[in-house]
């Protein structure tokens, strides 16, 4: 590709996590201040919840972490309020002081706020749930602005990586087009990795979608963003370069529960065996 | 209607009805014109050391302010909220027991309220709260109605300290400061009213303080610029609190760090002439 004389994004991706096929564990936060079902008790319990999950995920052997205001539906479609930016900064600062794993920030759905928090606390990547092309989600029409996001990153902190979802769960692209084409756009328009997911949190990501995206972007990191578990790991990692995992690591496999260390260990054991077999 | 005893609230928050509050001026933050690439950790460590100095010398509270970010936005972007929050939460952790307030310049009371509520800050300073001012950034409109409702939305235990006729700003309607203060008390529902001179560090006219104090009925009045070792005693009869910044700095330069010797000297004098 012309814009990258030597495209090192896959190498940089693996280097960030220090391993091929990294597994990123989700820190699903409880409802945050200002959100519809926030309990009004302040940040202490939220921080304790996050740190407990960090300890389990790290002990279980994941390669990275992503923190997300998962429990704040219905999410702001664009710019979030300052109460959320401030709260995410405080909780992320606590997390980063308790882990050596690379941390990513996902503030739904405001990637500029995610970059801002990432820079302030020293996180390494963000997840932009919408990056290229228009989509329709629960709040209506979503028109992400990659041109603004990329310039804002250049302005604030070019070292932060952008992991971009393509045809993300809970939404549909406005124009029905092949996922491979959309994946190539995200690569071409300077994402550092792309994420392919199923239709909802915890639901399987279709192997055909992963395959189509990967064959389209080739030597460029493709992550799976939902439904990664012991039973699906081998098939997925045949094509994908890594995974972001939440639901299957939770007690009882329920997204809103705490992380279950045993489940993390089981999954990471499987992943390590797969990595070994791949050589 | 039952009224909050605002003086009792000062005592609850600061441990005194006559607080002395010090400024913690942050270095230029990421994204601002003069930001020079310092890490947030370096910026925050400097601020922590100044907050510690204030506490050690018996100052009752500190206002964390993005003072270095000139030219200011009226409403700040996310990178400023994240940076100020990071600094403030680390100050709160490293300097426990010091009452913290937030002032996000130019006058973003919503950001200040959000950050204060998040990090356990007890008050915000709002430079342009009621009425309209002409400032370097153009017209600065009142943010009082929004701020009061946002506080309610967050259910925040955060007081609003509002300036009237603040330095660097010209009230669009040329009316006596006493009338403006009365509106800030009765319509703006401010928890304290701040009076300043014409610029950062400039002496606040004693007459202005007296006029405001006479005009308001049940709201504490603070002197919020130009307080130094020589004039602090003169305000003791007509004001309820003071905010210090410039004159405890090296060379009386607001951009310089706090001078520990000047700070100690100031507090020695203030103990005799202010908080008697």
Can you tell me about this structure?
The complex is a heterodimer of chains A (279) and B (276). The longest helix of chain A has 18 residues, at 261-278. Chain A starts with 8 loop residues before the first helix and ends with a helix. An eight-stranded parallel β-barrel of chain A has the order 1-2-3-4-7-9-10-11, surrounded by six helices. A three-stranded antiparallel beta sheet of chain A has the order 6-5-8, with no helix packed on it. Chain A has nine helices and eleven strands. In chain A, helix 2 links the parallel strand 1 and strand 2. With 279 residues, chain A is an alpha/beta fold. Chain B has 276 residues and is α/β, with parallel strands linked by helices. Chain B has eight helices and eleven strands. Chain B has helices at 6-14, 40-56, 78-94, 109-119, 144-154, 177-186, 206-215, 260-273, and strands at 20-25, 61-65, 99-103, 123-126, 133-135, 138-140, 159-163, 170-171, 192-195, 221-223, 241-244. In chain B, strand 5 and strand 6 (138-140) form a beta hairpin. In chain B, helix 2 (40-56) crosses helix 3, helix 4 (109-119) runs parallel beside helix 5 and helix 6 (177-186) crosses helix 7. The longest helix of chain B is centred in the first third of the chain and has 17 residues, at 40-56. Chain B is globular. Classes of the chains: A alpha/beta (279), B alpha/beta (276). At the A-B interface, helix 3 and helix 4 of A face helix 3 and helix 4 of B.
């Amino acid at each position: 590709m012309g814009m990258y004389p030597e495209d090192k994004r896959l190498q940089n991706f693996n280097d960030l996590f220090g391993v091929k096929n990294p597994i990123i564990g989700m820190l699903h936060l409880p409802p945050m201040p200002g959100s519809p079902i926030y309990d009004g008790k302040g940040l202490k319990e939220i921080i304790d919840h996050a740190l407990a999950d960090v300890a389990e995920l790290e002990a279980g052997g994941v390669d990275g972490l992503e923190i997300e205001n998962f429990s704040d539906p219905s999410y702001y479609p664009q710019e979030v309020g300052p109460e959320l930016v401030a709260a995410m900064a405080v909780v992320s600062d606590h997390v980063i002081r308790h882990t050596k794993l690379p941390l990513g920030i996902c503030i739904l759905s405001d990637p500029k706020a995610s970059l801002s928090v990432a820079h302030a606390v020293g996180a390494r990547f963000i997840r932009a749930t919408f990056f290229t092309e228009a989509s329709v989600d629960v709040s209506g029409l979503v028109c992400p602005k990659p041109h603004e996001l990329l310039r804002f990153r250049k302005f604030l902190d070019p070292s932060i990586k952008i992991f971009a979802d393509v045809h993300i769960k809970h939404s549909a692209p406005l124009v029905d087009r092949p996922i491979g084409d959309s994946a190539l756009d995200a690569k071409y328009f300077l994402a550092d990795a792309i994420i392919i997911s199923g239709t909802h949190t915890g639901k399987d990501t279709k192997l055909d979608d992963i395959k189509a995206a990967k064959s389209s972007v080739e030597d460029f990191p493709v992550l799976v963003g939902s439904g990664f578990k012991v039973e699906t790991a081998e098939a997925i990692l045949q094509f994908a370069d890594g995974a972001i995992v939440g639901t299957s690591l939770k007690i009882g496999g329920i997204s809103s529960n705490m992380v279950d260390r045993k489940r993390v260990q089981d999954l990471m054991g499987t992943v390590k065996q797969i990595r070994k077999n791949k050589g | 209607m039952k009224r909050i005893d605002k003086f009792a609230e000062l005592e609850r928050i600061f441990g005194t009805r006559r607080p002395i509050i010090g400024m913690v001026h942050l270095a230029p933050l990421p994204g601002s014109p003069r930001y020079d690439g310092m890490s947030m950790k370096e910026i925050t460590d400097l601020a922590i050391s100044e907050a510690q100095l204030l506490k050690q010398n018996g100052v009752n509270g500190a206002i964390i302010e993005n003072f270095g970010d000139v030219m200011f936005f009226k409403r700040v972007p996310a990178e400023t909220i994240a940076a100020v929050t990071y600094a403030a939460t680390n100050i709160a952790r490293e300097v426990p027991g010091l009452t913290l307030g937030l002032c996000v310049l130019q006058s973003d009371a919503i950001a200040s309220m959000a950050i204060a509520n998040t990090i356990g800050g007890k008050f915000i300073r709002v430079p342009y709260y009621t009425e309209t001012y002409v400032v370097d950034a153009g017209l600065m409109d009142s943010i009082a109605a929004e701020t009061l409702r946002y506080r309610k939305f967050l259910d925040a235990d955060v007081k609003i300290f509002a300036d009237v006729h603040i330095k660097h700003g010209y009230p669009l309607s040329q009316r006596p400061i006493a009338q403006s203060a009365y509106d800030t008390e009765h319509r703006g529902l401010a928890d304290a009213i701040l009076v300043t001179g014409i610029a950062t560090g400039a002496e606040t006219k004693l007459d202005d303080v007296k006029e405001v104090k006479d005009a308001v009925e049940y709201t504490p009045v603070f002197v919020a610029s130009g307080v130094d070792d020589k004039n602090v005693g003169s305000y003791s009869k007509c004001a309820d609190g003071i905010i210090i910044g410039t004159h405890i700095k090296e060379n009386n330069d607001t951009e310089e760090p706090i001078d520990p010797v000047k700070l100690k000297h100031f507090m020695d004098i203030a103990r005799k002439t202010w908080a008697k």
